[in-house]
Amino acid sequence: MPKMKTHKGMKKRFKISANGKVSHKRCGSSHLMSHKSGKQVRRLRKKVTLSVAAEARRIRFALLDRQNVNADDVEAHKLASKAGHTGEHGTSDPAGQAEQRES
Length: 103
What we know:
Layout: H1 8-13, E1 14-16, E2 22-25, H2 38-45, E3 47-49, H3 53-63, H4 71-89, H5 94-102
Antiparallel strand pairs: 1-2, 2-3
């Protein structure tokens, strides 16, 4: 079976972060800017991430890049490890440290 090919049009339009988030440039920011408000022009300059998980997954598969990464799972895992880290050693509770020192 031949190798899968990356979709070159999507490769030019989308970027995938290390956590699997898909970012892209907003439409409507290339010309005809004179009648748009300054607030809208500033908003159009920035890249945005896709909020629909199914669309992000479809694009990751088309780009053959970080296909099995779910950005929501990565964020949840980060938060869980961060919360578990502070409670595990007792660094967030000064009273608990005093009790450890006395015993």
